Structure formats: structure tokens, C-alpha cells
Fold these 3 entries.
Entry 1:
Amino acid sequence: MEKLRKLCTYVLQRRSHILNKNKLLIGYHTSSVRLWRDKVAIKIEEKLAVQHQGVFNEILAKKKADKTAFQTAIAYYIAKEKLYRRGHVEFIEAALHQMKEFGVERDLSAYKALLRVFPEGKMIPKSVWQVELFHYPKQQSCAIELMDQMEYHGVCPDREFGCILESIFGAEVHAFRKFRRMLYWLPKFKNASPYPIPYTLPIDPIELAMLALKRMVIDNQNKLTVWKTLEAEEEPLEDTFIVSAMSPEQKELIEEHPETKPLIVEGGYKTWLRNISQIYFVLRADPKPENFTKPPNDTRYEDEEDLFEFTTIFEEEKPKSVSNALSIHEQPDGTVLGMCITGTSSKNSIVTWIRYLQQTNPKLEKIPIVFQMRTPESGLQVIETDQEQNVGKFIS
Amino acid sequence: MFLRSRIIGQWQVCSKYNQLPQISHLRCFSSEASSVKTEESVTKTDKLQVKPVKGSKESELAKRYPSGITNEPFIKNLFLGKFDKEFLAYPEIEDVDEVNELNRMVQQVEKFFTEEVDSKSIDVNAKIPDDVLQKIKDMGLFGQQIPEEYGGLGLNATKFARIAEATALDGSISVTLAGHQSIGLKGLLIAGTEEQKEKYLPRLATGELVAAFCLTEPSSGSDAASIRTRATLSEDGQTYYLNGGKLWISNGGIADVFTVIAKTEITNQAGEKEDKITAFFVERAFGGVTNGKPEDKLGIRGSNTCEVHFDNTPVPVDNVIGEVGGGFKVAMNILNSGRFSMGSSSAGALKRLLGMTAEHATTRTQFGKKISEFGLIKEKFAKMALKIYAMESMAYLTAGVMDSYEKPDLSIEAAMVKIYSSEGTWMCVSECLQILGGQGYMKDYPYERYLRDARILLIFEGTNEILRLLVALSGCQHAGKELKNLVKKLRNPLMNPDVLVKTAFRKIRGKQLAGETTPLYLDGEVHPSLKEEADKIEDSVKMLQSSSDHLLVLHGNKIVDDQMNLKRLADIAIDIYAMTACIGRASRSRCIGLQNNDHEFLLTKTFCEEAHRNIKQLYHQIIDGKVKNLDQSYEHIADTIFKTGGYAAEHPLTRNW
């Protein structure tokens, strides 16, 4: 009983250790296989792993960490282990950890190069028993781990990848099944999003901001405008850029907005593009409750009196049948009139944005604007402006 | 004057006397006159009345229709399952001399168009030569519908349609004429005051003044109510100042007077100020009228189309057409009244094109045979003939009925003529080009010009889509008013179980939800050899009624949004109208023994079979619902396209990994 308890504790410790070490999604196969190995073997493995890690560190010290450096490391290993490929599992594992540093974690050819480190031919099972009993478990687990990492980064394997895998493990084993599942699902997931983002994001923050805004706007008439404060005015409050999204319909809504009711600038909200987050701000008006009191598909009214009393567009200038449809910007929680992303997300830049908007929307000069801003750093802040000029005092 | 002929009597009666059916002229104003019972008609046939019914009946009618005698709406009543049998009596011009006179006129016009008008150069130079235009004016063609007391030809609808057949030989001239008199000056004829008429009509009739109709704007196409051109009243209340731009105005560059539709601010009954549309008659001489350069167009290139701008143009209040704020109705009436002639003009041009194509088919040899011997070519010719026959029949039926009443209510019928003839023309011209092969495509031959000219027919004077909605919605509105109570009860079945059971029984027995279930006895109105066809009309009317009932119950007021089914309803109604016209015409031709009447007879039989088949299909589609008839799929597909901003499917060569 005592023995069993010890074993359990040990198993749990090892498991958490491995998980911490890898910081990756480790599949069932990998962990379960490892659990049944003895301490000595694990120690040797760790030693080897450290040794291989060293290879990468060495190269990192000499060269710039990029794809060629990564490939050099692999070539170096293969050249060294021409005959036996000793410790290839450990090498691959070490390499998987380093991929991010070399910036190749989303590069299929890097994974292929890494897969070629496995020796070819000798691990192909020769009977169904071998297939089902997880032939060469450590190696297969390693290959599955590699594919897991690909999956995590959204890298889809291709036919060549499958060929390499087949020449190493054969087409029946678990690793190859994993490959087939990936080939089935990943291409489908790749295009599942109705708001696609390019696979490699641009580096320029302006382009990123444009991409984020384009993804959020629902009106396809929308126009993006970019201002760089340095170019737009002589003495800017700060050096930054402003990307503003506003459609002609939103301009009309601003024109129709009564001067007595204030508009609200809200933000900053976070939006994500893959692993990059940006902060955006919204110019909105309070919702018009009268637009939303009667549900649009309420048939109770017509049942009573005016059933079939409709007039058509051919008889009347303002026929009863055609109601003024709400624009998509008029939502129950507010009418969205514009959005922006600025370089600094500061209060000044948002005020500048409103000032720029006034050039094309003269009505904005007459409407009071309330700034309800909550940047991640500053908590809730409200800036209220005077009617004449929009740069006003703060109320925190 | 113009009277409508009607075959009185039933075939049974005639065969009893073993003689051909007698023809008598009878003035028929209302459907009452048509719904004569069999016994009555027997007595009438016996007496063989020739004199028109006058006296008490007319005064009674005048009492009933104070603003002028009007017809029962034909198409609207079809939606209720009622059929006005008057429409099966094909109209003709009463006076033989009048017909001869008209034919002389047509011959003269036709001769002029064949010999003196060079359509090719008009097309290439995109201008009608001034001398040609002057000759057309001299012939009086600029004042065809203007009454004789104002110096016009005073043609009625039928004669106008007949002349249009000849003027349609050149598309550009035809459109120029239409822009001038079908829409440009029509406002004055419909709603103008006596002074306005006296002031302008004589000069318009001679072509001294050319008119144009200005409605379309950059922001306002089919939706006439959304125009932005504005007329503001001066402080002394004597002048309106007109500001705004109009787009794609036929004759815009050459016109001296314009019918302009603009928004004005008026005070309504409640005392509030609101924007209403008003029609103005504007002279170019008022000042502030400019126009852009003529548009370069696909077809009808010789006609002048351009932008017209009004910059503070002063218009005296005397030049308001109709009432201030009543311009929308004026505009709609102008457009509605101009459409019927498209049927005859299209038919005129098509008949000529068909002749040329037939000549080609009978002379061209391929594989050792004349191509006219090939089945596929024969099929094309037959189908074209069917279309032409139907559009011609519809056009002259509409025109004839129009002439029989003081205030005809035929806007829906006219819209149907326009829809059917424009689409038929496009199909026919396209098929002609197919038969002509390479020749049809070359600019050296006239055929491709016909194709280009024909394309506009589907677009202008109200696009066919909008007109289909007009047809279907008017019908549904009419039917809806009758069905209102029934539908209300049907929608609340727990409170009205008896109505539910009753309608369920009616449905099971294949009857309509409401209305008469007795047969229409249409075969009594036509030549007995067309009995089968008359039965097809009756069957079709039943289907139209059932399907519109079905949709009304299903949608209630939201029927206005189910455009795809409205289109089906409109198509059924159009086919019924075409069948009616064809049967009436063929019946008349056979009874009076016109040349080739057996050909007409065959055309009618074929057309009715085709139309009936088509109607059955449409009926089933409506009953099947939006999933089975694919409407839902169409909606989804289109939505995706709009969302992605174009064709959404990936390229077939795209790889995903």
C-alpha cells in the first residue's frame, strides 16, 4: 500500500515536472509513456536534452537567431550523428523548445527539417501487433509532440510532410494517424473564421490598426482615414498616428444628431489580432428608445385594424408599407458613429481625433462631446468638454 | 367614334341556326353588359341588334361615374377570381374609312423610315440629322396624341400604337418621339389647365418646342419619392425657384420645355409643413437651365440623353401641372399612360427583323440543306412568332379598351404589356442573332444594332422588376381588401373554428378560400374551336386566385416584402392577360375569316398551352414554399455575395495546404 502511494506521488511529481518543463500541450501518449520509465533513463534523457540545448545556445551566441541558423543547427546534428542518430529524440525536443526563439515556430519547412532528424526505415512496424502496441513509443511520442506544436501554432502539414513521416514510421502507426487527423481538421479550421486575418501580420502599427478596424466595421461602405499628427498640423499635442473608421451613413447620422444631446467617446476597448492586442475607441450616441420599443416582427398591430390596408410605392409618396429601416449602426445599446485606433491611445490623441473629425463633420463642432475613457493604465476617467471647444477639463 | 365589337351569342345558338356567328356592335361600358345570361343572349342573337345601346343606360352610367366612365379593373379582379368577359371581345376600329386613313398614314411613315432614315449613320454619329427630324415634325409625328383643336393629329391609343409600329423601325427616333410626347408633354394632356394647353400644345404639336420629362436623379431611380430637386416659392407667391440636377434625361439636350418633378414645401391639412412632390412645366427660356454633354450609350445612340441642371430657374405658379403637392400622382400617371405602346412598337420592329432573318434562313445552305429545314431553327422561329403575336395582341387589346372609356383604369395592363414586350423583344432579337450567326455579330449588318437598341426596353419607363411589383401588389391589395375579415378569422382559429372547418373543406375540394365557385363559362365568349383554351384561362385564373389567397394568408401585410413570390404572381397574371388577348384576337380572326386565321389559331393554341404549363409550374412553386422553391437558397447565396463584396467561392485551383 505504502509502495503504491509512493508510486502515485512520484507519478504526479514527474508529470507536473514534465508539463512545467515543456509548457506545451502534451498529449496523452507522451505523458503516459514517460510515467512508466525508470529514474536512470530519465536522467540520461535530461542530460542529453541539456546537451542538445547547448548546441542551439552555441549557435545563438554566434549567429542571428533565424531560420538559417535553425537549419544550421539541424545540419550540424545530422552531420555529427551520421550513422546512429544517437539522442535524436532529445535533440528534437530541445529544438521544439527553441523554435520560438529562432522565429520558426510557424514555419512548416522547419518542422519538416526537424522531422528528417528521425532515422528512416527502421521504425516501421512489420505486423499489426507492433502497430497497435505503439512501436518505438518514445520516438512516436516525440513525433506526436512535434505535430502538437504545429497544431498549436496553426501550421498545417502537407503531403511532403506525410511522405517523410511514412518513410520513418510507416502509414499505420499512431503518429501517422495523428498526421491524418491534422490533415483533416486543420485546413477546415484555417478558414472557419468569418473574419479572416492574414497568416502573417504586418509589422507597421498603422497597417495593424487598419486591419483591426476593417475587421470590426460591419458597414462595407466604411472608409478608413489615417492621420499622422506631425503631418496634419504644425504643433501637434503629440507625435502619433490616428486611424479613423467612419462610413457615409455614420456621417449622415451625425448630421441628423440633435445639438442638445451629447455624443460619447468610449474606450479603450481591447481588440486582438492573433497575438497582438490593440486599444480602440468608439464615438457613439445614446440609443433612441423609440426605435426599439416595438419589435420589428410584431404582428399584433396589423391583425387588428390595418390588415391589407397597405399602400404601395406606386400610389403614395410615403407609403405605409415601407417603414424607414434602421441603419446597422443604430443598435439597442447605442448608435455607433465612428471608431479609431491611435498610436498612443492617450487622451490627447483621442481629442485630436475628434478635432480632425470636425473637418469633415462640421456638425460635430456644435454637439457637446463627453469623453468616457478607461485606458488599461488609468482606470475610469471622464473628460467633459465645453460646447465651443472640445478640449476641456477632466473629471476623474 | 370608336366602338368595341363583340360576338354576341353562343356557338350552340349559331349551330342551331347552322350559320356563322353574327357580329354586332354594341357599346359595352361595364361588366354588367358582359355578364349576360345564356337565355338573354339567345334573344339578342335572334333580334340581331345593330344599334348601340343608348339612352337610359348611358345616363345611369354617367351617374355612377361622375369623373368619367371607367372600366372595372381587369387584372385586379383576376386576383379575386373574377373575369371580365369583355376582354375576350377583341376591339376593332369601328369605321372602315378610319382604318383606311390610318393605313395610309402608316404607309407614308413606313416609307419615310425605310427610304430616308439612315439608321446606321444615326447610330454611328449618335445624332439624328436635323433635316430628318424636321421632316418627322412636318409629318406631324411630334403631336400624335395632341387633340386636333391644338394642332395635333388627335390620335387615340389604338392609332397611336399603330403609328408607333412604324416609327419603331429606328430605335433612336422612336425614343426621341416617346421622350417628347409619351412622357415629355403628357403631363399637360393629363393634368394641364386650359391656359397651359393653349399656350404650349400648338407649338409642341408642330415640333417647334421639344419636350422632355425630368424625374430621374443621381439618388433617385425607381424610387420617385426620394428626389432632391427643390422648388421654393418666392415671397410674393408668384414664382417658384427650381434647384437641382436631373440625370439621364431623354431629349435633355434638345428640349425647349421640361416637365420637372420637384419637391416643394406645403402645409398639409393638419397645419404642419411637409415636403411634397409637385410637377412643373419649365421652359428653357426661363433661364438657369443647363445640360451636360450627351451620354455615350450602348443602344438608341441617336437619341439625346444627358444631365439637366436647374439653377434658381424661376417658374411662374401658372406653370404648375396639376395641384401643388400632387406631383407624385401626375408623375405616376404620365409613366403609366406611356407604357402600352411599347408592345406594338416592339412588335413592329420585330416583325421586320423576323422577316430579314427568315430570308436568311431560307437562303443559307449548310450540310446540303437550307437551314430553315433544321428543327432547331424552326423552333426558334416558332417561339419568336408566339412572342410577337402575344405582345401585339396585348398591346392592341389594351389600346382598344383604353379608347372605349373616358377614364380608363389600365395602368396595370399597360405595365404588363411593357414587361412582356420588352423581355420578348430581347429574347427574339437575341435568337435572331443566333440564327444569323456571325452576320448577326458584325457591325456591317444592322442586326447587332437591334440588339443594342432592345436592351434599354427592359430598363426604362420603370424597370421590369418594379413593374412586376406594381402588377402583383395592386392585385394583392385588391384581393386583400375582400379577404380581410376571412384572414383575420383564419389567423385566430380557436375563436373561429367554423371558419377553419369551412375553409378546410373548401381546400380539400380544390376550391378557393373565398369568392364564387361557379364556372366562368368563358367558352361561350369565344369561337367554339377555342373552348380548350378558354378552359385553360379559367384554370389559370383559379390558380392565380388560390396562390394570391395563399400568400395573403401566409404573410398578411408583409406580402410586400416577399418579392420573389410577387414576381411569380405577376408572371401568372401576365400570362393570363396574354392568353386572353391571343384568344380574343384569334377568335375574332376566325369568326370574320381573316387571311391565315388558321395560323393565328395555331399560334394561340400553342401559346396557351405553353402559358398554361408555365402558370402551373409557378403555382406549384408558390404553394411549395420558400424552402422547396429555392427562394431561401437564393437569398442566402446573395447575402453571402454582398457580405464578401462579390463572388464568394474560391477559385477552383486554390489549394488549402
Entry 2:
Amino acid sequence: MVQFTPQPHDKPDDPGYEERLVAFEARVARGDKVEPGDWMPLDYRKQLIRLIQVHANSEICGALPEGAWIPHAPSLQRKLALVAKVQDEVGHAQLLYRAAETLGKPREELIQELIDGKAKFSNVFHYPAETWADVCVIAWLIDAAAIVNQTMMAEGSYGPYSRALKRICYEEAFHLTHGYDMCITLATGTKMQRDMLQDAVSRWWKPIMMFHGPSDKESKHTVQLMRWRIKLKTNDEQRQIFLKKYVPKMFNLGLKVPEEWDLRLDEETGKWLYNEPDWAEFISVVRGNGPVSEQRLRTRRLAHEHGLWVREALEAAAGGRPVPMPTAQRNRVAVEN
Amino acid sequence: MSDTQWTVYEVFHQQARGEPHVHVGSVHAPDAESGLILAKEQFGRRQACVNMWVVRADAITASAYADADIFQHGTDKSYREAFGYETTRRAREIGDSQEI
């Protein structure tokens, strides 16, 4: 079965739910993968749709600030790489929307909910990319944080999501390498370049520390998500993996983390300690109250409108009707960083 | 004698849950359901298989081998690959000896 099929008795009060749930959880605990035609608890389906949708939306919204910087890339080489990265990210969203669709939510609905501001996207893309160094920091540290999350999720229990993530992780490896490459260039460059990089790291550190989501003490979904092997590591565990690998690299580049975080290594446990981020602020940001939340959605809407003629032309051509030509107005490109 | 020159179904099998479905061959069958039975007999006997698809061969639109050059890059596209960068060497030079 390739597509979603409604499954009976998938809600806690349904007859036979308990027995099915026990069998399902036993399978998942064995590391067995769940495929679209299988019985699964309604809540498993809903949680997965929610996560995959947020992930897909984040790929789209992440491409917006990067896309805006394409005309301003400092060299042809960097421009080519950035174009390729943006193309990859938008492609990832397409893979993910398809994976979410196998759980019964149509792609059109997933796309529309983002445009209407009803669906969330990653906290980090609610902040502006003010300088070229921001693009470098996003490509290195935010992609690094995303890779920690995605390589973990790729081992998760849902087959279609897991397959999509494996492909995505391969492409992310290029983004990460190129991101580090760009940061090395700035960090070993002129004083102006080094200052620009430090300024970007200082502004992005808060969203980066929040990237993996609320602390385990506050995360309401974690226990269930881990029991169903949708997630294999808690938010704090993912954050530690990220810090452990990348903070030494940042220090090696001569970069500093703003002092108010009091970031320090506990030599005994090997864990990084820090002042806890303001999780109420995180929740407010992902609900659409971030510095550029509105701007992101505006750009997304404009892009969707500008793409209308392509969708219409494809449908007309497939139906043997004359293909309408785009107007100059519709072709206008929106650029907001 | 009955004519068994039925529709061709292309067969895809999945070795384990979570793995992609892989094309393994094709069968002739009067309908999809019997295509699945025949595919199981033909391709499901030895290798591990947890799921099988049959798809009408005429439902597949394929590119032409003569057009294989459409997949060739006109220019060097190594900038799209991690291996297209000498970042590891650059990292080593500035004292980062860990995996990048």
C-alpha cells in the first residue's frame, strides 16, 4: 500500500485499541518500520504529520533568506553554491510533503496552511539574515544543528519519512561543508570579515540554542514521541551532540559565544552547561511573533502567487489547452532577506 | 489454447520495512491481482521480501537512452557536492583535527 488508507479503531476509546496498541508498540520497540498501509494509532499519525509538516515548512522558509542573498553573494563560486543549496532546500520540502501525504493529509492543504500562517516553521527562520556572514552561519551552524536532528530522525520508525531523510542528509552534507568553508574564509580573513562573522554568531546564538526545541523538562511531546520511536533522542540530548561537536570548532575559529549564556564545559560529565533559553519566547516566536515572521510569510505568499502561471500552464498543457504566458507583473521577483 | 499474452506488470519488491521498493522484473498477468500472485511466485521465492508492488508497464513513462545526455552536466557541478570543497584541508591547516 503506497497511499494512506484509513485504519479502524485507532483512537484510545475504540474497541480493540489497547491490543492493537500493544502489538504496535512491541513492533516499533523491535526497531521495525511502520509503512503507510499499516495500522497505527491516530495520535502517531497526527504527531508525524505535525513534525513532517513543520520540517517541510522550515525547508521552504529557510530558503527564503538564502534566496534573497543570491544576488549579493561575494563571488561566482559562492553564488553557484548558494543557488544549489536553495534548490536543494526547496526540493527537500517537496520530498517531505510527499512523506506527510502518505499519512493522509493532502499536499495542497499542507502548502496552504503555511501560506495562511496556520502551520509552524523552525524558530531560526523567524530571524533576519542581515549580513553575508549570517548566510555563512546559517549554512554552517544551523545546517549542522539540523543534521544532528535529521540523522537521528532518519532512524525513526516511519518508513517514508526515514527514506526521505536519508536522501536529505546526503545533500545537507554539502551545505554543511560549504557553510564551514565560508566561515573559515571569514574567520581567517580581514578584521572586518572576522568582526562580521562574530557579529552574526552573537546574534544567531540565541535562535541556535533554541533550535532543538524546549528543554526536556518542558517538552510535552518527548516521552510519547520516543516511545513510538518517532524521535530517538530528546531535545537536550540533540543540543549536547551539537554543542560537543561544534563549539570547539567555533572556538578554534576564534569565535566567542555571548557572555550572558555562560557557556562552559563540565569536565567531569563532558556536558556543556549554559543559561537556559527563555522557552516562553521560543514558543511565542514559532507561533509567528518573531522579528520577521510576517515578512517570511509575505514572501512565501508572493512566491506562491508568482508561481501560479506555472501551475496553470502545466495543467493547461496536460489538458491540451493553450498555455497562458506569464505577465511581466507576475514575473517580478520578491527579495527580502 | 488460451492466450496468455496479457498485460505486462513491472514488479517492485521491498526487502525490509523502511527500505525503498526496488524494481526486480516483470510478469504477464490478466489483472493486477493475479499479477501480484505471479510476481510473488517469480520474485518472492528466495530473497527476503515484506512488500511487493506491481505496476502496469504501460503506465510508466520512460526517458529514451538516446537522450541520456540530458542527465549530463553542461559544466562542472562539483560545487554541489561536499567533495567539491577542500574544507577538510583548510580545517586541518587552522588546527581542527576532528571530523568536519
Entry 3:
Amino acid sequence: MSDQAKSKKPVKRHLSPKQIEQNRREFLRSSVLAVGVMGISLVGLLPVVQGKSLALRPPGAIKTPSDEQDFLSSCIKCGQCVQVCPVNAIKLAELDTGAGVGVPFIDARDQACDFSCDGLQCVLACPTGALTHDLDYPADTRMGFAKVAEPRKCLAIQGKGFKGQARGPDYPGLLRYDDVDRWNPIPVADYPYDLALCDLCVRQCPIEIRITQCAAADAAGDKNKDRVAQRQGNECPPKHAIALEPIVSDDGIKRMKPVILEGCVGCGVCEMICPPDPPAIVIDIMQDADTIGGVS
Amino acid sequence: MSYIIESFRQLYGSDPRRPAKTDISPEAQKVHFDKKQKPYTKEEIAEVEALHAQGSKKWRNRRWATLIFINVLFLVSYYFDIQLLEGALTASRFMGFHMADLNSALQVTLAFKHMVLNLVIGTVTVIVIWLLLGGRTFCSWVCPYHLLSEWAESLHLFLAKKGIVKDRTFNRKVRSVFYLLFALLALGTGYTVFETISVTGIVSRALIYGPGVAMIWVGLVLLFEVFYSRRAWCRYVCPIGITYGVVGTISPLRVKFLVKDCHHEGECRKVCLVPHVLDVTIKGRAAHTEVDVSADCTRCGMCIDICPTNSLRFEIKGLGKHL
């Protein structure tokens, strides 16, 4: 020990002025590097602190409508949820979201989550619990809450029907149509509609579709009875999410308006399928069925 | 034990310890003494130096092949939906088994203050893998940024040779400062602050999910390395290196230095990403005839490729077998 102390000290004393200057510069450079890199990484916190990174998140994201902190911190930014989604609804956020970079989000207008995986595959794929496993059924999710943002654009409110491809021939989005293929989603463009009164938001709502399936299963009779009895909670049938209510009007035109109900999970299919642009109905990410406490 | 302590010192950023004369084994002293008595002639050294130019690319090629294979496997697995290796480098599933990047897992855990079972499984799996394979082996054999940085380094060295750029060094301890600050920030703010600027995560995701704006940041870091400071990110910033380095301190896979035939030309230190680990190859520094290179070494094998006297080798401690 004393040997080392002896051998070390003279070395330090004999630093030439040039070496001292070099060391001084290296220290300064290192300090600037430290401040610079830390500064840049802290700038990344701005968008999340300001709430600019808020977005529609995949099912099971551990967040409240206005607080995504737990979700952002627990997400390991690996994109496994992106990979398992059968309709490619999930995307990873860009650097403009700062510390939200690499975190999954859904742009419902481009491609909403229609639960065509049935089993919440993104939740199962999540390695960190950022998408919580506490979720059993699509109806348990709280992604947001639909709202009729542009009532005047709504075809049903105008009393109009809809004929053709909901989002035009070039729209790449996918949905699952049970009557075409129970298992695989197909392009919306391949499924033209012919509706006397537009009810696309209700017709394509995954929750409403599930209710119909449950009713069909119940109607199928005795052989399914045990399974029906084993069903838990509100899974089958779930609570209604959206309905069309008639509007009383003087002009004699039959009009209906979409009403969002407490079963809405905010998946975004209504926003995706709504023919006008911008859509009449959108997902409000600042609300969910729990915060809104029932009917809107 | 001394290997672990010395590895931690070097990971922290201290200069490698010069052995006191009394610490040098009699055998090593004899080698040093013999070399002093009968120094290599200029011709002998020139002969060895001439061999550097034709240094093998064996380990470099194997390494690049491995690195590219792993990263392309992520892409192929996703693109063709074969579910072989799902996710990205930060966390993935290899044939269904969870894997988690140790530093990402650490950041997430510090920020979230909770670890779900899947993450524990993934983290333990990856710790075991790199315990066996050498810790910072991750850096040079898997990290996709490392490869980009290696190419940037070639450009830097080319420009430096022409006198256009010069390498400005930083104090290596700054990496430990970053490590501490990023850990504290994750803990304090509850956000994974480092992940925002982690070039490893960004490049890995860009490869798999398509490049985005974040690649501009990677480009800036590369430009910094080309024009200002050689391999700056890996040498002075990246906390991932420290995390894996710590695992590597108890890994049996190391690079071993055999002092006997070494001509001390120092070419190995010139090609090395972390040249301080090779200070042991400086004349008179080896405390034993065989010395293990510290855990800050990324096991890239560049020194092994360049060494004409076979004085540097891969070894698996305990197996007594040289690769």
C-alpha cells in the first residue's frame, strides 16, 4: 500500500504544464458532454409533462385518461404488441413525443382495434405489464369514450343512407366480418354496404357485435347452457356501447342519432368506419366509461 | 476477486492499476527481465508490424455475421410472421421465451418501481446468457448501433489519417456519471429518460418497424463520432455497456493476454474500442504471464485478429480451452 502511494504521488506531481492543460480541457469537454446529453434527454420529458404525448393506447394500457405516467414508464418500447395485432392497429410513437418514443398508440381513423384477435393478444404479448393482464375481455378495456363530435356530418342525423365502400376504394384499413370470414380480417374496401339509413357506427361496433353473438349462443339452446352458466362478469353479453335513437323532426324525414352508452370501451371502430371526413364520431381519449359514469 | 475489483474500477472509469513490483509474479518478472536484457531488434519488431496489415478478419467476420443475423432475425420474424424472435432488442421473445435487455429492464423497473413476472423471467434469462457469454459481448456482437458506429469509426480513422479530423477524448468517468444520473432520473421522474435517446433501442426499432424521425438523433451521434470524438457514445455515454459490463465481471468468457511472445507494438490498443483494458499489454505491465482482460472488454476480437504473435486469445475460464 505504502509502495503504491509512493509510486503514485510522484507521477502526479510531475505532470507537465501541457498535460495539466490537456487534463483541464478534457474535464471541461466531459462536463459539457454530460450537461449536453442530460439536457437533450430532459428535453424529451417536455412533451410528456405537457401532456402532448397523450394518445389512444392499446387495450389494457395502465393509465387514466389524463395520466399516462405508469404506462409510459412501464413500457419497455419493444413493439411486441405491434407484432401480434391482426389488423396492424398498433403503431410506435415517434421522437416528437419525447420520452413517449417507441410507446404503442392507435390512430383509430387509420386503423382501429376491432378486437379481431378475440383474446387481447397485445395484452398477452406485453412483457412488462404496461398492458395489464388484469383484463379478461374486450368489454373490460378503457381506451377512451366515443363522442359525436360533428353531429351535422352524421348521415343518420341527416336521415341519409349509405351505399358503397365506407372509406372509399383506396382505404387500406381492415375489419373482421363474421359473415365473410370468422377468423381473418378483410379490407373494409372489399365490403361495400347498402344501407337505407347509415348505422355503420352501431353495426360495426365490436361490443354490439359481441352482444349479437351472445344472443345467438343463448338462442342455440341447451347444449351451450353449461358454457353460458360459466361465463363470468359482463363478458357475455357485455353492456351496450352505442345505439341509434330516433329524432323527432317536423320535416317527415326519418332521422336517428347515435347515442354512446356505458359499454363503450373507446376502441375507435366507429371513428374508423364513419364515412364523412372528418368523421362525425370520434374517440375522446380524455374520457372513459368509468370517468364518464354511464350514458353520455 | 482481484479480477472483479479491477473490472469494476475500469468500468467506473479509473485507469487500470499498474502492478507494483511486488505484485508481479516471479515468472512474469522473468519474462519482463528477459525482454529488457535482450530487447527485440528493430528488424524483429518491423517483421511483426508488417504482419498487422494482413491481420486476419476472422473474429470480425464472425461478429458481423452474428450481429447482422440476430438483428435481421427480428425483422424476418416480424415480416414473415414466423414468431421466431418477436419484439425488439429492448425486450423480445425467442421462440416464446421472454428476453429483456438488462438496461431497459433496469430503467423500466426504476421508473415503474414494479416488476411483473414476465419481465423477471426475461431479465434472468438474459443475465444467464451474458454470464456465460461475457457481458459486454452484447455490445459488439448484438447491438446494431455498434456496427453503424464501427463504420463511422473507419471513416473517422480515415479522415484522422488525412489530418481532417482529430479524436478528442473525454474523461471515461463521465459514463459512470451518466449511469448514475439516468438511474436517478428514472427513479425520480418515473419516466425511462435514457430510453428516449438510447441509440440501441432506436436503431433496433427502426430496423424492425421502419425508420422514423428518431434516426436523425442517431445520425447526429454518428456525425459527432466521425468528426469530433472516436466512438464517443459507446466509450463515454452508453449506460448499457456498464450494465452488461457488470454481468461480465463474473463471466468465464474473457480475452486473455499472454505476455511471453508479445512484442508490445501496441497495435491492439489502436484498434480497440476500449483501449484501456489492453494497458496490460504495455511493456512491463503484466503481473502474470497470463492476464485476463477486464470486463469492460466487449470481446469483439479485434485485438485477437490484429495480433501477429497470438498473444491475445479468447478463453473460457475453467475450461482451460482456447477458442
